[in-house]
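Q: What residues go here?
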């Protein structure tokens, strides 16, 4: 844990002098020193609790959710800087186990793991690398099937009792940019009204314990 102390000190000297006739009288000098503010910033590192961290995904049919499920984390960590009541994420990374994709339908799960989609035999993990956190949004880069995708998502940070929770609100990734086999084939083989949405939605609750 690192602590940064910012101390503001303000001093103002005042002088008063008066002269009259042959006599001279000089008043004493007064100095007033005031401590303006003490601000403490605490930076902590957290190890992601893979047992309680939840990553949700959902596919869409128009504006309706067609399928939804979860995927598990393998490992990761993040850093949070707290100044007063403001908590800001200052670093982080996350690795996801693509073999853990769950939806409740074994046939669909197998389809998602096949080379048409995530090709888990070749790309067993997906990763996220943190870039910045500002104005309530987290930014970073996800690497999915070996290709980098820019990510931005709303996030709320809670720090208490040696733990931290990152509540990541819903965001979406356009999988068309990944050129997945499934979506590429649909471009030429499927009728427009039969094509699946290339947008995949995500949200997450990431729990972290203070690193020892």
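A:
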């Amino acid at each position: 844990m690192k602590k940064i102390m910012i101390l503001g000190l303000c001093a103002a000297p005042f002088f008063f002098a008066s002269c009259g006739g042959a006599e001279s009288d000089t008043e004493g000098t007064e100095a007033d020193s005031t401590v303006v503010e003490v601000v403490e910033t605490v930076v902590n590192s957290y190890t992601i609790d893979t047992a309680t961290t939840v990553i949700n995904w959902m596919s869409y049919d128009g504006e309706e959710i067609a399928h939804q499920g979860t995927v598990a984390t393998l490992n990761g960590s993040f850093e949070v800087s707290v100044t007063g009541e403001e908590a800001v994420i200052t670093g982080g990374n996350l690795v996801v186990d693509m073999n853990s994709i769950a939806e409740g339908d074994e046939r669909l799960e197998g389809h998602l793991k096949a080379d048409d989609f995530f090709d888990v035999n070749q790309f067993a993990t997906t990763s996220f690398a943190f870039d910045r956190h500002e104005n309530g949004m987290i930014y970073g880069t996800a690497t999915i099937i070996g290709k980098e995708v820019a990510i931005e998502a709303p996030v709320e940070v809670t720090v208490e009792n040696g733990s931290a929770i990152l509540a990541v609100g819903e965001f979406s990734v356009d999988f068309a940019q990944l050129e997945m086999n499934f979506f590429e084939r649909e471009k030429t083989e499927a009728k427009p009204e039969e094509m699946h949405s290339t947008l995949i939605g995500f949200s997450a609750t990431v729990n972290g314990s203070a690193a020892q």
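A: Context that may help when evaluating the design: Confidence is low (pLDDT under 50) at residues 1-24. Helices lie at 106-113, 181-189.
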